[in-house]
Amino acid sequence: MAAFFELLTPEEVERTHEASLEVLESVGILAHNARAREILARHGCVVDDESGLVKLPGAVVEKYRSLAPGSFTFRGRDPRFDRTIPGDGPIVVTGSSAPNVVDPVTGVERRATSTDIADIAYLINELPGFDVFSISTLADDAPPGQLSLSRFYPALKNCLKPVRSNTPTMDDLRQVIELGQIIAGGTDAYRERPIINHHYCPMVSPLTMDVESTEAVMWLTEQRLPVYTTVVPNAGLTAPMTMMGCLVIANAEFLAITALQQMIAEGTPVIYAGLPTVADMRTGAYAPGAIETGMLLAGQAQLARHYDVPSGGYIGLTNAHANDAQSGFETGMNTLLGVAAGATLLNMGGLLSSLMAFDFAKCVIDNEIALMDKRVWRGLEFSDENLAVDEIAAAGPAGSYMGRRHTKARMRTTAVLPRLADRGMRPQWEDAGRPDIHSRALAEARRILAQANPAVWDDDLDAAIRARFPGMVAGDAIPLEEPPA
Amino acid sequence: MGDAEIFERLKQSMIEQDQDEVLAAVDDALAGGVEAKAIIDQGLLPGLNVIGEQFECEEIFLPELMQAALAFQAAMGVLEPKIREAGGAGPKKGRIVLGTVKGDLHSIGKNILKLLFETSGFEVWDLGIDVDLFKFLDKAKEVDADIIAMSALLTTTLIGQRDVIEALTEQGRRDKVKVMIGGGATTQAWADQIGADGWAATAYEAMTLATGLVAR
Question: The domain that contains B160 carries what CATH number?
């Protein structure tokens, strides 16, 4: 694209940046993690250990945040699927850690299992719109002590694309890294190609740094393993009830965690990722599907360009509980806004009910939205050749372009060819039993999952993993059952 | 000013969510010899009821409900000592131990709930955030709580709510206390699965739910 959609002038970006520095220096952050406080103190921040309050001088923040490099790389089991942003952007990452799944047979919401994760991993592996599989759900069938293993094992087993997720404790984190090392073929090989991409939300709005997630981010940064963070302010509840006040909170939080990471290891890759929202003041309801989320993320994209770091975040979420018009317009409008604003990471894919439930049909629909978003990014593809003056001359006035070689050579690439969006005539649709987008999408998920998954690793590797972690879930994708006739 | 006018002014000041005016009306009422208990029952609570009705039909929004609750609590700060002096402290509606579960540092929704619990007449022990399961159990035992109310926003910390219920059962005390859960990561289905006595989507619904739980 020649230019990005921008809501702020360069002067306003600068002023927002200054306001964030002012907040960090005069208000400060509450850092619950003692080791984080110690690192911040050692690098010039003013720490009150009794209250946990840390004030970050503007000069210190500026010094360290400017060390963050301009790109971030996600690695997968197959290097063909490695993605670096912003260069390979926009990349589409699924939304993660929903506790529930909408059962594809009954349509009833239930607790998600490791088998669901295996199915979803396979689906993401096959759907071309998705680049990174952020493990969509929890696994309710996890054996004791294997909460995270029961998510990462089925995810990695069934998907060659980069896998991303979080872990609730340091023990879980070490366990999943060991899993990654076995898959990679040893610790050295893993260091070379760390195929687990870690993500945490250590900043709890407003201006608070937690204990466990912060510890995980610090440890991974020390280990030079890939990790990035998301800031999640909620205007009216955890941020002021203005769009700009919400951006200032988000920006201050991004700067604080980024400075901490750079203090630990200069040049650590980061992503300016966010899930900024405005709470619904009528009830206090969480509203991640609201248009303000896309607008705020557009503002963050501008700030990220100011800092020369890649940006994006959770932007394709919806409050809707079914694949209805609300679900479509919330995901569609917001992700398009993100792409237009230059965000190169979009978290979307399969989640309904504001991050609470994964839906297989929603996932397939979001794949199609993702392909459209990526088409927008490609732009109008200006070139002298594409102006096609010779072709216009050859066809002549009143000529048809349909049967021409020029058209044939470009018919598969100029436009998105959706599998779900219906472009037939009404009688055809009526003859087919008036299928809605949900049933068409679910049928597509069924079609994909009915085939054997070529992404699954070989038996020797599987045996080695299962020997190290006895009692682990099966982690195999299974075809979706047909609905009762 | 007659009593009827005094009560009407108290009620109106609550409806307008104007803390300064509420406190001024309370002061004037006390100076005029109205008893503290009557100020609450015939002035402030009728106003608060209107606020509740207005909130339910979205005539007013959550920030306004909170301003009204804060004004009410400020007035109670003046009135409660007077009721105690007169030896007329009535029983509280119930005792609630409240907190955000282990590993979760989200406090804002819980704090709104605390305000509404107290405003509706409960006695609340707020254990804060990142609360260990034994802290819930020990405090509930210590204060003879009617309700344990637990919040979780992160889906990965949800199981802390189940742990508390299981521990209560193991200690043989499950029937001694009602358990209610809430927070962004929770659903009615989760509440049913772990055997909680109630779930609410919003702080306001949680307040109504708690009132129902202790009335049973």
Answer: 3.40.50.280
Could you tell me which chain B residue has the CA closest to the CA of A234?
B108
Interface of A with B in 347-386 (CB under 8 A): 354-356
Number of domains chain A is built from = 1
Put simply, whether A210 touches B (Cβ < 8 Å) is yes
Contacts of A236 in chain B (CB under 8 A): 63
CA distance to partner chain B, nearest, from residue A103 (Å): 14
Nearest CA-CA distance, residue A358 and chain B, Å: 13
Residue range A291-320: average pLDDT?
Answer: 97
- For B113, which residue in chain A has the nearest alpha carbon? A284
Instruction: Using an 8 Å CB-CB cutoff, list chain A residues near B130.
Output: 211
Domain that residue B18 falls in:
3-85
Chain A, nearest residue to B187 by Cα = A356
Chain B nearest CA to A284, separation (Å) = 6
Same domain (yes/no): B36, B107: no
What is the SS3 assignment for chain A? CCCCCCCCCHHHHHHHHHHHHHHHHHHCEEECCHHHHHHHHHCCCEEECCCCEEECCHHHHHHHHCCCCCCEEECCCCHHHCEEECCCCCEEECCCCECEEECCCCCCEEECCHHHHHHHHHHHHHCCCCCEEECCECCCCCCCCCCCHHHHHHHHHCCCCCEEECCCCHHHHHHHHHHHHHHHCCHHHHHHCCCEEEEECCEECCCEECCHHHHHHHHHHHCCCCEEEEECCEECCCECCCHHHHHHHHHHHHHHHHHHHHHHCCCCCCCEEECCEECECCCCECCCCCHHHHHHHHHHHHHHHHHCCCEEEECCCCCCCCCCHHHHHHHHHHHHHHHHCCCCEEECCCEECCCCEECHHHHHHHHHHHHHHHHHHHCCCCCHHHHCHHHHHHHCCCCCCCCCHHHHHHCCCCCCCCCCCCCCCHHHHHHCCCCCHHHHHHHHHHHHHCCCCCCCCCHHHHHHHHHHCCCCCCCCCCCCCCCCC
Do B73 and B32 lie in a common domain? yes
Note whether B38 and B7 are same-domain residues. Answer: yes
Domain presence at residue A285: yes
Q: What is the pLDDT of residues A20-33, one digit of tens each?
A: 999 999 999 999 99
One domain, residues B105 and B59 = no
Chain A residues within an 8 Å CB radius of B63: 236, 281
Q: Which of residues 103-142 of B touch A (CB under 8 A)?
A: 103, 105-106, 108-109, 112, 130
List chain B pLDDT tens, one digit each, 216 residues.
Answer: 688 999 999 999 999 999 999 999 999 999 999 999 899 999 999 999 999 899 988 999 989 998 999 999 999 999 988 888 877 666 788 999 999 999 888 888 898 899 889 988 899 999 999 999 999 999 999 999 999 999 998 888 888 999 999 999 999 999 999 999 998 889 998 999 999 999 998 888 999 999 999 986
Please check whether residue A400 lies inside any domain of the structure.
Answer: no
Final residue of a structural domain among B85, B110, B142: B85
CB contact under 8 A, B187 and A98: no
Answer whether A99 sits within 8 Å of B112, measured CB to CB: no
The whole-model pTM stands at: 0.91
- CB contact (8 A) between residue B156 and residue A204: no
Count of domains forming chain B: 2
Domain with residue A255: its CATH number is: 3.20.20.480
